[in-house]
Amino acid sequence: MNKESDAHVPEAQASEVYELMEVDEDTDSEEEEPLTGAEKKEENDQQPEVEQKTLPVAASDPQPEEVVENVSVEASDHQPMSEDEQEILSLASSDHQPMSEDEQEALPVAASAQATSKSLFKLAMDTSINQETIATEWVEMYKESRSTALLRLMQFLVEASGSQYVIPADTAAPFKYMDILLAATHHFDCARKLYPLVAKEGSCIATKLCSFTQCLVKAIDTQGEQPMSSNVFKGFSSFILVFSDSKVRAFRHTSTLMGLQWMTALLAMEEAEKFKKLTHIWRRMLYKLFAPRRLDSVDAIRCLCCSEFLLWLMEYPAKTFDLVDSHMYCLFEALHDTSPQVRECCLVGVSRLCTTEPRVQRACLQLVKKYKQSVLLIAVADKEWLLCELAIRLLMSCLRDSPGLLSDEEIATIEGLMFDQNRGVAQAAAEVFVHQYLHRKEDEAKRIGRVVTFFKRFPEHEHAAYLVDALIERSNVLLAWAPMVEMLLKGEVEGEKEQQQHEDTIIIELLTHAVKQAITGEIPPGRYTKDLNKRAPMAWAKQTATQILAPVMAKLLRKQKENIVNLKNLLELPQYFELEAEECVEHLPQLIKRLQNIFYHQRDLSVIRTAAETLEKINMPATWQGIKEILSTAVTSYRMELRDWYATARTQATNKSRDNRLIERLQVVSVLFRHFDLTKCQLLPTALQSLDQCLSEADGRLPRGTIHLYLEICSHGLMWEQRIIMKDAATAEDIQERCEGLKATLTGVIRMAFKVIKSMPNRSFPYALTTICDLFVLFGYHLQQHTSAAVRSLMYQPTIEDFELLEAHLMMHLFEAEEPKELLQEHAFDELHKKRQALAGYCKLVAYNVVPVMRFRFVLQFYDKFYDAFGDLMRSAMEKALDVNATNYGMTLMHTCLLVFSRVMNGEEPLEDLLKLAKRLAETLSGDLLNSRKGVLALHRAGIYFAAQRQENSLVGSPPQSLLYLSVLEKFVPQLLSQDKIVILKLLSEQIPAELPSCRREEWKPLECYRTALELALKFSCRRAEYEAMEQY
Q1: What value does the mean pLDDT take over residues 685-709?
Q2: pLDDT greater than 70 at residue 98
Q3: In whole angstroms, what is the distance from residue 303 CA to residue 321 CA?
Q4: Which of 224, 708, 714, 951 suits a disulfide with 767, CB 3.0-4.6 Å?
Q5: Quick check: 996 pLDDT over 70?
Q6: What confidence tens digit (pLDDT) does each residue in 258-315 have?
Q7: Tens-digit pLDDT profile for residues 625-647
Q8: Diameter of the chain by CA atoms?
C-alpha cells in the first residue's frame, strides 16, 4: 500500500481530499459536562507528563524534499486547536507509559509479524475464524507489546473506515491521533465515495464490527489486569473521539459505530466495581461522542446514536439511568428529525421504555407529557404512515397510565384517523376509541349505539367499510349481529322517526360490511396495508351469519323497501350465507319472492344489479324453479311492454311514461342476461333489429334511451353464445354453421356500435366504446390457439379505421374536454367514473395485445398531465405491454415523447413538460431492468439516430435540428444496464462526434449533458475499467 506522507498531510492536499470525499461541515460538538472532583483526581493521577512527538515516517518510504517543504509550511499555517481537541490530544498522549526495555526489544518482532500476517480487520471479517480467539490473541499481544497491539487496534478502525493508509509499524507512543487522521484521510480511494459501512455488504460488516468490539472488550475485562484495561479503554476511546470529530463521513460513521459499541460493551461488564472505575471514560464518551453525533448531518449516524441510547436504557437501566437521565430529552427532540428512520427509531424505543424499569417508565411518561404536541403532530400529519401508527400507539400506552394525558379534542382528532387510508394507522386509532368508549362492560345495544353515534359525528366520511375494518379486529362490537338485527326490527318511536331511520341506515351499512369482512377476509378497496393480502376468514362467521340473518332477511327487505341505500346493502347479505344450512334452505323461498317483487317494482339500477348478483349466488337445485319463474316473468314483461309500445306508437307521437316503462322492463332483462343464460329466448337477434330501428330516422322509432340497453343485451348474448360453442367444441360436435352465424352477428353488432358512436358521439359515451372494446377482447387473438378451426374462425380482426375512430372518440371525451384538476373535484365524480370506464376499456386492448402497442402513444402523451386521474389505468396497461414485447414497448415510449417533442419545437408546449413526461415514463422501466433491457436499448438507439439527423442545407458547426431530443433520452439513462451504457456511448460517438466547436456551445449542451450522464454512471459502475479502456482507445 502507499505510505507516502505518513507524518503530516499538507493543508492543500487535505482540502483536496475533502472535496473528493463526502464531507459534512456540521460536526460541531456540544459542551462537555464538567467532571466530578473524584473523577478529575482519578484522571490526573493517571496522566503523567510525557514528551510530545510527531508521528514517525515509515523508514521504507523517505519523503521527497518538496514534501518536506510542504510539511513545514503546513505546520506554520496550521490553525490552533480548540480546547476540546487539546484536551483529547493531551489525554491521548498521556494514555501510554514509556516502553520498557523488554517492550522495545519485542517491537521489531511484532512489527514484522504485522507485516506478514492478516490485519486485525481482515481477521475479524473472516467468518472461518472465531472472533473470541482473535480478541484473546490481541490481549496476549498487548501483554507482550502494548504499542504494537494498540497500533493494530488503531489500524483496525482506519481500515474499517475504508482508508488505504497503513500506520507505520515503528510508530511509538505517545501517538499523535490527529496526524494519523490526516494521513488516513489522504490515503482514501477518492474515485469511489463508498466505504465499508455503506457498501452492498455494509450491514454484514457492521454486524461483525459490533460483534468483534464486544468480544474484545470482554477479553480485556476477563483476561487483562486492571491497569491494562483502564489504559486500553482510555487510549482507544481517545483515538475514537478524534476520528469521530472528522469532517470525513466514513471516519465519523465508523468511529461512531465502534465508539457506541465500546460503550455498550463496557456496560455489559459483569462486575459493577470494574465499570464504576471506568465510569469517567464512559461519561467522557457520552459527552464527546454521543452528544455531538446525535446532531450529525448523516442520517445513519443520528440513527445509530438514538438506537444505542435506547439499548442502554432497556438492557442496563440500573447502570445507565443515573448517567443518561439528563439526556433522555434527546429522544423526544429527535421526533422533529428530518429522517424517517430516526423518528421511527425514537418512537419504537420510547414505546418500549414505557414498559421497562419503573424509574425509566416514570421519566418517559413525564417527557411524553412535555413533548405531547410533537407526538400528536407525527400521529396526525406525518407523511410516513408507519410513524403515524407508532405515534398513536405510544400515546395509547401512555393513556393507560395517565388517563388525562389528552384532551377531548385531541382524542377526537385521533379517533377520526379510523377512516385513514392506511390500515395500521386506522387500527391504532381504533385502539384509542375502544379504550375510551368500549372497554366498559355494557349491554351490546349500548356499545353499538356508541359506534353509531361516533359515525354520525363524522358526516364527511361516508366509507363505513373503513370503520368496520379498523374496529373488527380490535373489538367484538361489530360482530354482535343479533343485537343489530333486534335494533333494526324494533318498532318506530313517535317523534324520532327520522333519527331512527338515519341510525338504521348506519347499522345496516356496518352490519353488511362486518359480515362481508368476517366471512371473506377481504380488506376494503382503497385501504393500504403492508402485505395487501386478504386476511383469513373467521371460521364461525358464515354459519353464525346464516343462523341470525336468514330467518329475518325477508322481513328486513320488506321493512326497508322504500330506502334504496338500505335495500342495496341488505340484498348483498345473502351472498355470504351458507346455502346448504337448514336455516337458509327453509327461508330461501321467502327471499326469492322478495327478489321477484324487487325486479318487478324497483326502478333503481344499482338495486336491480345487486339483486341479480344475489340471485346468481343462491342459484341451486332447491331454488332453480323460483329463479326460472323470475327470468321468464322478466322476459315476458319486456315483450309485452314492447308490443304495447308499438301498438300505441302508431296513434301517439310521444309518450314519456310509455317510454319509461319499456326502458324499465328492458333494464331488468339486460341485468339478468348478464348473470343467466337467456339465449333460448332469442333475445340477441331481436335486440340487434331493435337497435337498428333506434338509430333510424323514420317515425315510430324506439326511444334513444334504449340504445345502451340493447347494446348490453347484444354483448351479453354474444358472450353466452361463444361460451356455449366453446363447450360444444370440446365434445366434438359440428359447430361450423353456428360459428358462421355467430361471426355474422358479431360483425353486425360491432358495426352497429360504431354507427352509434358516429351518429350520437356525446350521448353514446362511454357505453358504445366499452362494448366495442369488450367484444374485441372477447373475440381476440386467444381464439387462434383453439384446436377447432370453427372456433378459430370466430376471431375478429379490427381494421385501422376501427382503431382511429375509437381513439378519436376517446381523445375528444378524455383529454380535450376538461382540465385534469377539474376532473378531481367532488362535483365531477360521476364524469370521472365514465371517463375511467372508457379508458379502462381501451387499456384492455393494449394489455391483451389486440391493438398495436404503438398506437398507445396517443394516450401515453397525456400520462403525466392526467396522472392523478388516469395514471393507475395507464400504468397497468404499460406493464402488460412491456411483458408482451419489450422492444415494441420501448419504441412506443420513444414515439410518445416524439409527439410532445414536435409540439415543443413548434413552441406549443414548454420543454419542462416533456422532461416531466419522460421521467414519469422512465419509471415504468425501472421495476425489472433485465426484463426491460431490450426496450431501453431500442429507445436509446432510435433516439440517438433521430437526434443525429441533419438537413442537407445545415451549416457547418451547427448542431442537428433535433439534438434537443437527447435531453429526453437523458431521463432514461438510469434504466440502462452498465454494459449497455458502453454500447450506447459508442453509438453516440459514432453518430455525433465528441469534438464540439468552440462557438455555439450552448446549442450543443444537450449532447454534453447526455454524454456526461452516461460517463458518470459508468465511472461508478462495475464496468469502470472497460469504460476507461474505451476512453484511452
Answers
A1: 86
A2: no
A3: 20
A4: 708
A5: no
A6: 999 999 999 998 888 888 888 999 999 999 999 999 999 999 999 999 999 999 999 9
A7: 999 999 999 999 999 999 988 88
A8: 130
What one-character DSSP code corresponds to residue 693?
A: H
Report how far residue 715's alpha carbon sits from residue 906's, in angstroms, rounded to the nearest whole number: 44
Q: Which among 547, 538, 533, 543 has a CA at the least distance from the CA of 517? A: 538
Instruction: Give the model's pLDDT for residue 6.
Output: 39
- For residue 175, give the nearest of 263, 242, 107 by alpha carbon: 242
Mean pLDDT of all residues in 479-484:
95
Q: Three cell numbers at 842?
A: 381501451
Rounded-to-10 torsion of CA 771, 777, 779, 780: 150
Q: Select from 950, 961, 1026, 1030 the least CA-distant residue to 991.
A: 950
* Strand, helix or coil for residue 95: coil
CB-based contacts of 489-493 (< 8 A; 24+ apart in sequence): 489/552, 489/555, 489/556, 489/559
b/e for 310-349, b at 16 or more Cβ within 10 A?
A: bbbbbebbebbbeebeebbebbbebbebeeebbbbbbbbb
Q: pLDDT, tens digit, for every residue of 920-954? A: 999 999 888 999 999 999 999 999 999 998 776 66
Residue 248 pairs in a beta bridge with 23
**3-state SS string over 294-319?**
CCCCCHHHHHHHHHHHHHHHHHCHHH
3-state helix, strand, coil in the chain (%, to 5): 70, 0, 30
Closest CA to 603 of 562, 569, 572, 574: 562
Phi and psi at residue 1024, to the nearest 5°:
-60, -45
Give 893-914 pLDDT, tens digit per residue: 999 999 999 999 999 999 999 9
Residue 505 burial (C-beta neighbours within 10 Å; 0-12, 13-18, 19+): middle
Cβ–Cβ under 8 Å, residues 614 and 575: yes
Closest by CA position to 815, among listed 782, 839, 843, 847:
839
> Region 396-406: what's the mean pLDDT?
90
Q: What is the DSSP letter of 436?
A: I
Q: Residues near 605 by Cβ (< 8 Å), separated by ≥ 6?
A: 667, 671
- DSSP-derived letter for residue 918 is H
Nearest Cα to Cα of residue 95 among 173, 179, 39: 173
Of 347, 338, 413, whose CA–CA distance to 375 is shortest?
Answer: 347
- Label residue 724 exposed, middle or buried (CB < 10 Å: 0-12, 13-18, 19+): middle
Q: 985 near 940, Cβ under 8 Å? A: no
Q: Map residue 176 onto helix, strand or coil.
A: coil
CB 554 within 8 A of CB 590: yes
**Crossing angle (nearest 10°) for helices 146-160 and 101-116:** 30
* DSSP code of residue 170: T
Give how far Cα 794 sits from Cα of 382, 500, 734, 849, 850, Å.
56, 57, 15, 17, 15
**22, 82 in Cβ contact below 8 A?**
no
* Mean pLDDT, rounded, of the chain: 84
Q: What is the spatial distance between Cα 857 and Cα 829, in angstroms, rounded to a whole number?
A: 26
Digit-coded pLDDT (tens) for 861-876: 999 999 999 999 999 9
Residue found under cell 508521528: 55
Q: Mention every residue, 6+ apart, whose C-beta is less than 8 A from residue 1033.
A: none
CA distance 705 to 721: 26
Burial string for 957-976 (b: 16+ CB within 10 Å, else e) reads eebbebbbbbbbbbbbbbbb
Beta bridge partners of 422: 528
Q: For residue 710, what pLDDT is reported?
A: 95
Mean pLDDT of 3-7: 37
User: What is the band of 370 on the pLDDT scale with cuts at 50, 70, 90?
Assistant: very high
1026 or 98: which carries more pLDDT confidence?
1026
pTM of the model: 0.78
Helices 408-415 and 372-381 pack at an angle, to 10 degrees, of 30
- State whether residue 607 is helix, strand or coil: helix
